[in-house]
Amino acid sequence: MSERSETAQGQSDATSRCRQVAAAMVAPGKGILAADESIGTMNKRLDKVGAAQTEENRRDYRELLVSTAGLSDGISGVILCDETLRQRFADGRGFPEALCELGLLPGIKVDTGSKPCPGLPGEQVTEGLDNLPARLAEYAQMGAAFAKWRAVYTITSDLPTETGIRANAHALARYAAACQEAGIVPIVEPEVMMDGDHSIEKDAEVTSAVSAAVLAELADFGVDFAGIVLKPNMVIEGTDHAERSSPKQVAEATAAGLRALPDDLAGVAFLSGGQSPERATANLAAMQAHQTRWPLTFSFGRALVDPALQAWRGDSGKLSAAQDALAQRVAANAAAVRGERTDQELHPV
Ligand code: 13P
């Protein structure tokens, strides 16, 4: 085969692999567990529950989460950070290998965090593009099936600006294209933050503008929509807003914003964004009343793991209580995406 046709063959193999993995990530009744907090963020969370901020505790906690019995019944894959991907289970298996044996796809957060954006006071841009193809090649070799990159947008009276929206959308698209070339499915995560007192209508407006910019950049970079999972925020009022939207209102506003998404997208997996676990589940359940062209599932972090972290607090004697707490959240969210929630469960917000 000529060099050019070998490259083309390699690319088409990568494309079909990405499509297959992306479909598995949003398989019916399953969501994605986000356990990819950076070392700094994880340390803050450990400190909050009175656990020591050590590498060992970060490892123990992640092993506790992913080895919860039956996790793969409601979870397709787990997003890890670089530190965890390189760590080992207590029995010596590397995390990626152990996850595969547990029926879970290993994922890796590849952005290096959001930083103040030069030229745009008050706005942030996510970094991590330098050397990304080489890092992705290493992660692929280590067994990562998918990746994550999170862009953050804060709402104030004059933010985000169009330029801020575009800068983050551009980075997300370059990241997504690099992932697909490496045969790794990109989770594309543009997050409009809940911080602030904005209304649900304002959130809808900003989320739509962000989504349009991200879709345009993804298309410009030739990203294959069937080989990505979009991870947006739900459309919801700001944390300090006077009125709280109902699950029905959140679902309607969110579904309306999704209409512009392309038909061939693999799926949508929402972040929880600081909602309580119960509220995030109720909103996700209400979303299922809307007929969409792609699965609407969850890729929650805090809304899945907070009760487990609270139960564990670094105490090995509380391991099974912590795993029960995680199992309960996973079961509730899996039931939500399967449309199996009862009315009673829909209202505890
Ligand atoms: P939350 O569900 O806690 O918002 O986290 C999801 C995530 O992956 C953030 O990048």
Automatic annotation (TrEMBL):
Show which residues constitute the signal peptide.
none
What is the main EC category here?
A: lyase
Membrane spanning residue stretches: none
Q: Which InterPro entries match?
A: Aldolase_TIM, FBA_I
The highest taxon in the source lineage is: Bacteria
Asked if Lyase is a keyword of the record, the answer is: yes
EC assignment: the record states 4.1.2.13
Keywords, A to Z, come to:
Glycolysis, Lyase
One Pfam family in the UniProt entry: Glycolytic
Instruction: Give the pathway annotation.
Output: Carbohydrate degradation; glycolysis; D-glyceraldehyde 3-phosphate and glycerone phosphate from D-glucose: step 4/4
Gene Ontology molecular function terms on file: fructose-bisphosphate aldolase activity
Against PANTHER family, the record matches this protein to:
FRUCTOSE-BISPHOSPHATE ALDOLASE
Name of the protein described by the UniProt record: fructose-bisphosphate aldolase
